[in-house]
Amino acid sequence: MHTKTLTELVTLLHSKQLSATELAQHYLNRITASDLNAFAHVDPEQTLLQAAHADHLLSQAHPHTLTGIPIAHKDIFVTRHWRSTAGSKMLANYTSPFDASVVEKFNQAGMVTLGKLNCDEFAMGSANENSYFGAVKNPWDKRAVPGGSSGGSAAAIAARLTPAATGTDTGGSIRQPASFCGITGIKPTYGRVSRFGMIAFASSLDQAGPMAQSAADCALLLNNMAGFDERDSTSLEHPAEDFCREIVAPASSQPLSGLRIGVPREFFGPGLAADVEQAVRAALATCQQLGATLVDISLPKTELSIPVYYVIAPAEASSNLSRFDGVRYGHRAASYDGLTDMYKKTRTEGFGEEVKRRILVGSYVLSHGYYDAYYLQAQKIRRLIANDFQEAFKSCDVIMGPVAPTVAWDLGDKADDPVASYLADIFTLSTSLAGLPGMSIPCGFGQGEKNSQRPVGLQLIGNYFSEARLLGIAHQYQCATDWHTRHPAA
Ligand code: GLN
User: Which ligand 1 atom is at minimum distance from the Cα of 123?
Assistant: First the structure.
């Protein structure tokens, strides 16, 4: 049952061959039996209440397509019935009085929440090792990280603990864990999906998106996620569209004919591991067989995306995280001597190492005298990075390349070396800085250093608002290949 796609589950639920309660119970059992630490909080009673409600809706005329489908949310979205921790001790016991817009939309559709998914603290990380609730294991090889920060989401889908999940991507956190766990995920154009109720990391970059087994499943989910929200000041007033419109059966043996795929030189340099390069090149060759042509393109500022992102993201984080002061939310130190001491102790105790590092860097680059040299400069280069993409899109329709330079590394490998893990974000950051949509789809396996099977993701980057196109291209690739159907042995 758990290997079925969303479309298959929709059919089973709507034809009453399966009840929402049976389905939810099945996944709850799998979650209980799992040792991946993918979930941060489950509440079976609450889940089964939602499932019973879904069964009621399914017994009525015209239920919503997604009614009764289980979903789990990255623990960065606030929820009324499950704790909302952002992977932090600061919020370890926090329950929100409202649901995030994204959660609200899925609830309104009658979807059933299985629980909250572990993630890096405040979504800062690339390995899900920065969570107060412990690291998440990669279901393909438990010695490996699942990627981050949406590592719980990716691991849970790969291990078939949920058929659908939400993730957020600030600099790669949907695409990179999707790649490391061999699943499909899309980060939409910035502003497409409401950030209301998403615990903020870097507000000009944060964007939510769906994670699932396939592009077709992600399209179904995105249909119910996207849309203007007046409660989010950066939400875009873009006409509603059907993200499933290009999820169609291949019309010929060359369904991608006419498609120009830009292959950025800078994504295939010396830092790219041979096993990843091989899988990605094979995927590009498959696209050629499906009718697409490859175009050599350049994104010359790719390398600068790392320093630019690691100035802008910490700057915004230092500002966003100032709200966690022991007064308004979450943790407060047990004993202190005056107000300043209360702030100090609370924040010292409540935040983990990486979060503190970013608050320090962010406060530094925003401080008087350094603002012009770092923050303003980074903003200018951010514009040039976005311009690179517009130049590239003059000669191609979509850009493809690796998601990350290597397959998933071992747990602990980069835990003490933040710069090493920042460098591994090289292929995802520029898309985020430009606000473009990007996705990751499984395209093979590498071996890493351990001679084990670790998934490789193919990254697709499109121009603003091209999500339907990206999903359609990914779908054609998935009709011709079976990487997305593979899942780790139980
Ligand atoms: N790995 C990047 C970081 O640590 C991206 C995280 C994200 O997209 N949330 O900031």
Answer: 9
Alpha carbon of 355 to ligand 1 centroid (Å): 11
Ligand 1 atom with the smallest distance to the CA of 124 is: 4
Whole-prediction pTM value? 0.97
Beta-carbon count within 10 A of 237 CB: 9
What distance in angstroms lies between residue 285's CA and the mean position of ligand 1's atoms?
A: 30
**Over the stretch 162-208, which tens digit does the pLDDT of each residue have?**
999 999 999 999 999 999 999 999 999 999 999 999 999 999 999 99
Measured in residues, the chain has a length of 490
Does ligand 1 lie within 6 Å of residue 123's CB atom? yes
Q: Residue 363: in which H helix or E strand, if any?
A: helix 353-366
Which domain range does residue 28 map to?
1-490
DSSP 8-state assignment for residue 371: I
CATH code for the domain of 120: 3.90.1300.10
Q: Return the residue matching tokens 């920060």.
A: 149
How far is ligand 1, taken at its centre, from the CA of residue 126, in Å? Answer: 6
Q: Give pLDDT, residue 489.
A: 86
What is the residue type of 120? D
**Separation between Cα atoms, residue 206 and residue 172, nearest integer Å:** 10
Report which DSSP code applies to 267: G
Q: Which residues are catalytic?
A: 74, 149, 173
Determine which helix (DSSP H) or strand (DSSP E) holds 342, and give its type and residue range.
helix 339-350
Give yes or no for residue 209 CB within 6 A of ligand 1.
Answer: no
- How far, in Å, is the centroid of ligand 1 from the Cα of 219? 23
Read off the tokens for 219.
């399209």
> Three-class SS of residue 438?
strand
- 149, 153, 309, best to mutate for ligand 1 pocket (most atoms within 8 Å of CB): 149
Token couple for 240: 């509603």
Q: Are 69 and 166 in contact (CB under 8 A)?
A: no
pLDDT-flagged residues of the chain (< 70): 449
* One-letter identity of residue 419: V
**pLDDT value for 452:** 83
Pocket lining: 173 vs ligand 1, CB cutoff 6 Å? yes
The phi, psi pair for 297, rounded to 5°, reads -130, 170
- 3-class DSSP assignment, residue 429: helix
Torsion of CA 104, 242, 9, 218, to 10 degrees: -80
Residue nearest to atom 5 of ligand 1 (CA): 171
Please tell me the total count of domains within the chain.
1
